[in-house]
Design goal:
The protein is α/β, with parallel strands linked by helices. The protein has a domain of about 190 residues: Vaccinia Virus protein VP39 (Rossmann fold, 3-Layer(aba) Sandwich). It is about 45% helix and about 25% strand. The strands form 2 sheets. It has a 7-stranded mixed sheet, sandwiched between helices. α7 packs antiparallel against α8.
């Protein structure tokens, strides 16, 4: 069964909603990347670490009833949400697989493409996962990834020492659990070593005011992340409240801008 307690922010309803907001904000860029990758009707596509399936549902619409989307996820809770939504929509092209991406073999599908977003950054053995993804893809298949490569770019302007402390503590907790917040820096090297051809590399970062919809995506993580840091004992409750108060004040102040965590978009072709 999926180890729900291991998920950094849990698998409860609030987190499912946060992930939905996150996908909504990123959806235009995601759809554009999939278009450039050539994802289309009738293909078999892998959604690696699908979570509650927000991207899976978009992939299902792209491949249509003649294609397949294999949704790979460790959390049974997340897969229950996806399966219920597929049943509600009458989608037969989605197949869910409950498996640990850090250890389990992937379905040997000869798939036409694969998609992963903020998955390798949490893996204990990310390069091994890339090898298993390659084995599941047909020659010529396209792999699309979104992963952070400069998480510390997440800043406010004017600067907020409290907010910068929060980001630094998040990165510290991430690495303590075996992940790597800047995994995007090494992924292009690993992919080429494994025989992928890099088709596109694009940095994705925004500088936005508090009125922007994009602001809402990182903001939602601030509240969840502070709770998590308190639970881990990295911050005491009083310090977390001060950071939350400083963030709220910055959000309410005129002219404040946020620089989002820098993401690397990779489109790679399996040789």
């Amino acid at each position: 069964m999926g180890r729900e307690a291991d998920y950094v922010l849990g698998t409860h309803d609030e987190e499912i909603g946060r992930l939905g907001l996150q996908h909504h904000v990123w959806q235009p860029r995601v759809l554009d990347a999939w278009r450039r990758a050539g994802f289309s009707a009738g293909q078999t596509l892998l959604d690696i670490g699908c979570g509650p399936g927000w991207a899976t549902l978009d992939l299902a619409a792209i491949v249509g009833p003649t294609g397949r989307v294999l949704a790979l996820e460790r959390s049974r809770r997340f897969l229950d949400v996806l399966e219920a939504e597929c049943a509600r929509r009458g989608l037969q092209q989605v197949q869910t697989h409950e498996l640990d991406l850090d250890a389990a073999p992937l379905p040997a599908t000869g798939a036409s493409g694969a998609w992963a977003r903020w998955i390798l950054t949490f893996m204990q053995h990310p390069r091994d996962l890339l090898e298993r993804v390659k084995a599941a893809l047909a020659p010529g298949a396209v792999f699309v990834l979104h992963e952070y490569f400069e998480y510390a770019s997440w800043r406010l302007a004017p600067r907020s020492p409290e907010f910068e402390e929060f980001v630094e503590q998040v990165m510290r907790s991430w690495r303590a659990s075996g992940g790597e917040p800047d995994i995007g820096r090494i992924l292009p090297v690993w992919l080429q070593e494994l025989g992928f051809e890099l088709r596109e590399l694009r940095p994705l970062v925004d500088v936005v005011p508090a009125t922007s919809t994009i602001w809402q995506w990182p903001k939602a993580f601030v509240h969840s992340g502070l709770r998590r840091l308190v639970d881990l004992g990295q911050l005491d409750a009083e310090r977390a409240r001060k950071i939350a108060t400083a963030f709220a004040a910055a959000e309410a102040a005129p002219h404040t801008l946020m620089v989002t965590p820098a993401v690397l978009e990779i489109i790679a072709v399996r040789r």
